[in-house]
TrEMBL record:
Amidase domain mapped to chain residues: 1-444
PROSITE patterns: AMIDASES (PS00571)
Keyword Amino-acid biosynthesis attributed: no
Protein family membership: Belongs to the amidase family. GatA subfamily.
Superkingdom of origin organism: Bacteria
Subunit structure as annotated in this protein's UniProt entry: Heterotrimer of A, B and C subunits.
Protein name: Glutamyl-tRNA(Gln) amidotransferase subunit A
Ligase keyword on record: yes
Organism: Plastoroseomonas hellenica
Length: 452
């Protein structure tokens, strides 16, 4: 009830939720109370969560923050949300996001921008973005409008908003969480993961969200460890890699200082800091911005106005498709569909898509080689603190730079955790990122909780 009251008071300003399911939440909480009274509580019984509006929820509208899905009520539930409910979680509603999870600011939502609950000390009236695409999830957790949230991360969409809003968030290894019932953006990169106030809470949520699912052909048949037990585990003797290519010219001095501070904490805790090289990291952004739109252009072909979602009238079938897609998709989504269609076209496939796939393999190989020398890698989560609309947002290429530290993990399928690690001079939160080996989230949690 406290969370529902908080949402009523603050959501009109923050716009973190697209849909609030207060009545269902109270009912679910009462059922939880009954289970707890009988001593039958699950690991998340009564825990109120926000669900990114990209996860299909049976009987509850799921929009992907797009006009084209404004009236879509899924007849089924995603696997991740099914598992959270199985463990007793209570859903407060559906969290806002960038349309189809394409963006780093939440400015592309068809349901309006999300406000970051944080403000600059010297300029408290300027509204800042929460990051994206899972900006509603991050803002809800930061503003205490949920105890945790689900997100998805295709190129940084959990880790960047977590850093901008001062909360923790993890993108697990590709295949750790089922993608079944999550609206697809770029299927070879998309991964679900949790947000929470602490690294340990993320570990608890991730355990419930993880596990093999025969309904997702890329879901991995590996055991789900007790991630929580790894939090607080000693980092003594661990080797922590620092990629020299990430010491970018022009990186904000506060980010560099935070990074050094995080490494110093780890050194004090007995870890060894090792310089490593990821020679192909410099190609990660252009590679990502070919692969992701290519897959998106294919995935979004299903929104034709015939089977579900928005339908505009047309003279004939082609006209109906065109009018529906013209009215239903926002500008960024159209840009991605056009880029994707171009790089996959017969004349340009070899030059763009095929080349990007080859570089993707080289990026993955860089990590395999690095992980022979180190157990985890620590980098900044983002190149800056949260920005305001208009500061960074007018040019799509500048916007894409937000993902510079995060996209490599998606291209290589590796786990990455964003840990709130400090504040800048304006009092805004900054995050550090911990990357790990494939399916070694435990080391990531151990290192993350040592930094936290
Ligand atoms: N900002 C990146 C993009 O716009 C990543 C988004 C995401 O991870 N879903 O594609």
């Amino acid at each position: 009830r406290a969370h529902v009251a908080g949402i009523e008071a603050l959501n009109p300003r923050l716009n973190a939720y697209v849909t609030v399911t207060a009545e269902q939440a109270i009912e679910a909480a009462q059922a939880s109370d009954a289970r707890r009274a009988k001593g039958e509580a699950g690991p998340l019984d009564g825990i109120p969560l926000a669900i990114k509006d990209l996860f299909c929820t049976e009987g509850v509208r799921t929009t992907a923050a797009s006009r084209i899905l404004h009236n879509f009520v899924p007849p089924y539930e995603s696997t991740v949300t099914t598992q959270l409910k199985r463990d007793g979680a209570v859903f407060l509603g559906k969290a806002n996001l960038d349309e189809f999870a394409m963006g780093s600011s939440n400015l592309t939502s068809a349901y309006g921008a999300v406000q970051n609950p944080w403000n600059r000390r010297n300029d408290p009236d300027t509204v800042l973005v929460p990051g994206g695409s899972s900006g509603g999830s991050a803002a809800a957790v930061a503003a205490r409008l949920a105890l945790g949230a689900t997100g998805t991360d295709t190129g940084g969409s959990i880790r960047q908003p977590a850093a901008f809003c001062g909360v923790a968030g993890i993108k697990p290894t590709y295949g750790r969480c089922s993608r079944f019932g999550i609206v697809a953006f770029a299927s070879s990169l998309d991964q679900a993961g949790p947000f929470a106030r602490t690294v340990e809470d993320c570990a608890v949520l991730l355990r419930s969200m993880s596990g093999f699912d025969p309904k997702d052909s890329t879901s991995a048949e590996v055991a789900v460890p007790d991630f929580r037990a790894a939090c607080g585990r000693s980092v003594k003797g661990l080797r922590i890699g620092v990629p020299k290519e990430y010491r970018l010219d022009g990186l904000a001095p506060e980010i560099t200082a935070l990074w050094e501070q995080g490494l110093a904490w780890l050194r004090d805790a007995g870890a060894e800091i090792v310089e490593i090289s990821l020679p192909h990291a410099q190609y990660a952004l252009p590679t990502y911005y070919i692969v992701a739109p290519a897959e998106a252009s294919s995935n979004l072909a299903r929104y034709d106005g015939v089977r579900f979602g928005l339908r505009e009238d047309g003279r004939d079938l082609k006209d109906l498709y065109e009018k529906t897609r013209a009215a239903g998709f926002g500008a960024e989504v159209k840009r991605r569909i056009m880029i994707g269609t171009y790089v996959l076209s017969a004349g340009y496939y070899d030059a763009y898509y095929l080349k990007a796939q080859k570089i993707r393999a080289l990026i993955a190989r860089d990590f395999t080689e690095a992980y022979q020398k180190v157990d985890a890698i620590v980098t900044p989560a983002t190149p800056s603190a949260a920005f305001a609309e208009g500061e960074n947002t007018d040019d799509p290429v500048t916007m894409y730079l937000n993902d510079i530290f995060t996209v490599t993990a998606n291209l290589a399928g590796l786990p990455g955790l964003s840990v709130p690690a400090g504040l800048d001079a304006q009092g805004l939160p900054l995050g550090l990122q911990v990357l790990g080996r494939s399916f070694d989230e435990e080391t990531v949690f151990a290192v993350g909780s040592a930094i936290e």
